[in-house]
Structure formats: C-alpha cells, structure tokens
Amino acid sequence: MTSTQPSPQSDAPALRLRHLLGIEGLSRPDIEALLDLSDRYVDINRRADKKMSSLRGRTIINLFFENSTRTRTSFELAGKRLGADVLNMSVGTSSVKKGETLIDTAVTLNAMHPDVLTIRHGDSGAVHLLAQKVNCGVINAGDGTHEHPTQALLDALTIRRRKGDLAGLQVAICGDVAHSRVARSNIHLLSIMGARVRVCAPPTLIPPGLERLGVEIHHDMRTGLADCDIVMMLRLQNERMEGSFVPSVREYYRLFGLDHDKLSVAKPDALVMHPGPMNRGVEIDSDVADDIDRSLIREQVEMGVAVRMACLEVLAEAQLEPWAKNQ
Amino acid sequence: MGEESVSRTLFKNARLLDPESGLDAQGAMLVDGARVLDIGPNVFVDAVQDDVHVVDCKGLCLAPGLVDMRVSTGEPGNEHIETLATAAQAAVAGGVTTFTCLPNTDPIVDDVAVLEFVERLGRDVGLVNIHSYAAATKGLGGKVMTELGLLHESGAAGFTDGGKAIAHPLVMRRLLSYAQLFDTVIIQHPEMPEMVGSGVMNEGETATRLGLPGIPAAAEVMMIERDLRLVELTGGRLHFSCLSTAAAVEAVRRAKASGLRVTADTAPPYFSLTESAVVGYRTFAKLSPPLRTEEDRLAVIEGLADGTIDAIVSAHIPGDRDQKRLPFTQADFGGVGLETLLSVSLELVHNDQVPFLTVLKALTQSPADLLKLPAGRLRKGHLADFILFDPNRAVRIDRDELRGKSRNTPFDERPVQGRVERTYRAGNLVFDIETSPVPERRRFPDA
Fold it and tell me: What's the complex ipTM?
C-alpha cells in the first residue's frame, strides 16, 4: 500500500460549504453528507497507515485565541492525516498580545494564502467577523457561548454509529447550558436531525428564551433523564460554581451530578457523553464516566478526528470551486 | 427703509407646520433679519412688495428647526470621532438647529470652567445652537454632586451622567431635592447597572441563539420605578431618556397620570428597529439601551402617540470603525442619529401611527420646553430657526453619504420617506441639499 491514499470523498456528492461557522443554518442533507464522509475516515484512522494525500500542498492554520488541548490537537492531527501543512498559532505567542487587532491578525494570515483557517475565540461572533475578512474557508472551533459545530458533528457521529439513527431519539443535555456553545450546537443539530431534545439544569444555568429553540426544559434529573436514550453532560466552569450561579460544588453534585442512581431512570441502554474536559465529582461521577458499557466519552474523542478531517476536506475542496470565489 | 427691506425674506407657497399653535396650512412666512415677522395662510397673499426677497417653497413643508436634546460628540477629548463642527454639519443636514451635548467628554463637563469652554466652542461653530448639560455627579462617578447652582448659572441645560445611570438611590434623592433650587431638570439613563452586568443586547431568544449575554427589559423599568418613588418623595423634576421597553412606557404613563413631574424621550431606533437588527453580530445595532422586541417597539410608538413620551432624540453617539469592527461583546455601544432623525421619525406619520404635528412636537417644541430653550416654534418675534422638507421624498439611507465624521448608523440601507431640503438658522441658510453634495470618501468597510 502506498503512503498516500485517495480521498474517500471522491464519489460523495459535492457539499457546498464555504465556511463552517455554526450548525444553525445547515440542512439535514448537509449534516448527513458530513457524517457519511466522517464515517469513512473513522475506518481509515483505525488502520496502521493513516496518511492520505487529498490535501497535499494545502495549508491549514489553527488560530486559537483561547486555550485548548484536545480540540487543537484533534484539528492538527486531522489536517496532517490528510497531507496538508498545518500551522498552529495560539494567542500567547502571537502579535495579538502586542495590541494588533483581531482583524489585522486575520488579514495578515490571509495574505499568506491558507486554504482553511480554524479559529477558536472567546467572544461569540468573533469567528463570524473574521470569516468576512478572509478569502479562505473558516471553521469555527468554538466562539464564546455561541457555537462549536465540529463538537456537535462528532457527537452526532458517535450516536449514529451506536444507535443507527438520530431521528426519534430522546436526548437529555444536562448542566451549564447558559454558558455552553456545545449545548447550542447540539440542540440545533439534534433538532435538525429529528431527535427530541430536553435540557436539565438549575434555572440559573438555563439561558432565557431557550424553550423557543424547541427544547423541553427540566430542573430535576429524575424527570429530565426519564426514558432518555442519550445523556449529554456539560462541563461546569470553575468560576461559576462558587455562589454566582450555583451555591456550591457539593450542592450541584447532589442535585445535578450524574451518578448511576440518577442514570437509572433513563432507558436501560442509555449512553452517556461528555465533551470534556470532565470535572469528576462535580457534574459526573467517575463510576459513570468510566463505565465501558455506558460511557462514550473516549469514543467521542476518536470521532473528533474523523469529523474534522471531513470538515477540512470539504472546505478545502470548496475553495477551488467557482461559486466560492465570489462570496 | 432700504437696509431693512433687503433683510426681509418671504417664504411663500409652503405647508406651514407649527406644533405650538397647531398650525398646519398652506401659507407663507415673512422673516425679517434673524426673526419671524409674520406667519400664516394670509401673509402677503395679494401683493408682494418690491423690497422683499421672495423664496418660493414649492409646496415643501416649513417647520421649526429640530431640537435634539441628546447628542454626544467627541469634543473635547475624542475629536477623531466627531467634533462639535462635524456634528453641526450632520445636524443641519438632518434639520436640527439646536442640540444639547452630554457631559461625558474628556475632560468631563463637571465644573464651570469646562462647561464654559464647551459653550464657547459651540458658539464658535456658529452653524447651530449648541448647548451642554453638566454632569450630575463629579467625574460621572455617581457619588458626589456637582455644583448645580454655579453650573446652572453658567448655562447648563440640565444635569445628567450621560450614558451612565445615576444608580445610588441616596445620590438621586439629593439631586432631585437640591435641583429644585434652580428648577432645573435631572436626566436619567434608566438602567439598573447590576441588572445589566456584562449584557450587550436584549435578553431573550435572539441573545440565546447568538450566545451573547443579555440585558433584561426589567433593568429599565426597575430603575424607573425606583426613581418615581424618589420623585414622589422629593417633588423634583426628572426626565427619563431613551425609553425602550413596554414596561417603562407604562410606568411613565402611570406616573404622569398621578401628577408626578416626570417626562421622557425615546430615539428612532426604539420605534423603528428591533433586536433582530443585531442578528449576524451587527455591531452598528449595538445600542444602549439595547434594541428590544416588536412588542416593545409598538409600545414605544403608543407612548409617543398618547404623549407619555414627550420628545424624540437622536441619541447620536459617533464611533470610529476601530470601536465597531470588533467582536460584538467588545464593540462600543451607540450609533449616529442626527442626520436620520427626521427621516426615520416620519415613518410614524407615513404608517399612520402618530399624527404629523405630534411627531414634530416631539422633535421641536417639547424638548425646547423641557430645557427651557427659546426654540422649537414658529412664532412672531422668535428667531427664525426653521427647515424646509419634503415628507414624501423617497431616499435610501447610505452611511457613506453621511456628513458627520462617524458613520456608525444602525439605519444603513434603510429606505425612508422624507428628506430635509434646506435648514435656516436665525434667518440664514445653513444647509441646502442642492448645494451641499455628499462628501467624497472611501466606502466604509463592513463592520
């Protein structure tokens, strides 16, 4: 076998995606096409020889204004496995610290002709703003409390591979929904794909107007998790635990931390997910997190690389299309 | 006789609109030098004397020059954003002949020396009548009262902490009590700061979708209801600026009905836009108070129609692109409004929501009366500050055609009906759309 395999995308229908800024606005066929392509990369990633050539000669820049280990690593690996040249830039080493504006940074990088920019930023809408200033593809790797589309796609891929179909599933998203971009992207994606979504959290962690997104709201884990197929736990940020949104860690764990007892009201084959990094003993008990029959947490990480490969390839290919040039 | 006759001008064939007298009729206005000599349907209908210069208004509306009681410029301190001179250019293009500046400049207008400096700068501009408020508290710090008496004597139009609420109840109580010595007005930006927190737009579904921290509508009415208690307690005079929510309008309506000395204004964004203008992270629609819901917008219109809201202000806040081309949470609040004030307000008339003279009153006589300024009416013997406008002229607002220094309008590309053709101040033509082409400059990049 050669070290450069052809892309499995070649026979897939062309997906017209200039940027991937969020799940909101994508269609069901868009999402299905991305998941189908990702599925094929999962198999390739399990081989000994994982290197492909489809993005050889192309340049991907990972521009991270917020700390990240797993997401950045996942994007980096995805780009390299496709044969692209990948450059990582994090805020600590960039000129943003010297007072250069966000837009100047983007324009500077854009002048170096990357094919895809992967951007994470602490402000909602920042990636959207940058996408208007560059003429390469942009992937939102998380912006403020807005969206984190590749996380939702990898969650969907994980569920689809286990349950076969997303439509009709009962999914409970639990924890700090108010400050979670993962929750927003997942709510959009799951709703588009026909799953039923409920959220379960204390009222202080539910953003106003959330019910208008078509989700059911619960404040009690016993009703929130009843008969659900999937439990998605969210990370509770440290700074939000000490009295500002919830009174204390121990009270939060008592009421909303996921343990086997609370999980017992879900379907017997219900699966547990978490975008990581986990706060063990805060939002999730270690017995659940490490239960190989129940927890999909490690599988989510594996799917992450495949999904990001699919997104990078689709966007890099789109840059060559005439319709993308004029936008 | 000779010299006097040259200075007389007859504006004939106009639709005369004067909210104070309720005049809405075809007629003419005779101006002698700086002042109105006569006005009405029957002025000079028969014979026009030879020694009078005649201007045929060709059926245009002739109304008092607008009085805008809420304007920020960058002068002193941030002249790269807007100077008093560039704000004056924008003002006359929008039909504004009198405006009042907020004290949040650098240095802050919180003592007599700075106030007199700003007043002098305003007089030197000359194009329009420029007044200034003084800060209600030293350094806008919300703690220590400024020298209300001395500042009032030096011409302060009223007292306000600008875009900051006077948050401390005891400070507000004392201001309302003490200001009665001079029968001057305290102007409040009604927003409870603790409820605003880090919010950047209206709280609700849209903010949740965009992942932006919200400002609840309750933040406004909570401050208003607290202040109403203080007005009741002190008997003071209080004006609420930029009402944006249905609850706030209702609170002011009830207070007026119970006889409290309160007044209020709003600005065009609050009766013509909603929070949906923010979608796409449009920082030009990031305003304080934030744009609200459709229900709120309709309630604000209702408040204007029934007189609960006395005045319409531009809430002009210039900002350069570096302060707006940022992620939404980091961008500055505020938009320019002087040049679009009349055009957007006329939507209320075209939509049959508020009578023509009521809209004009809110733009002229009411703010003048609130601040006790001798402006905002067409009356014999008064200064001839007036505008000629075509209420039906269709135009599309284009930020690159704005005459002010900053172009951060939330109304870019909005089609409107109504345009100011000419503006006169003290009988002198200070703006003419025919001879004042839009400035040549580069297109403003997207923000």
Answer: 0.91
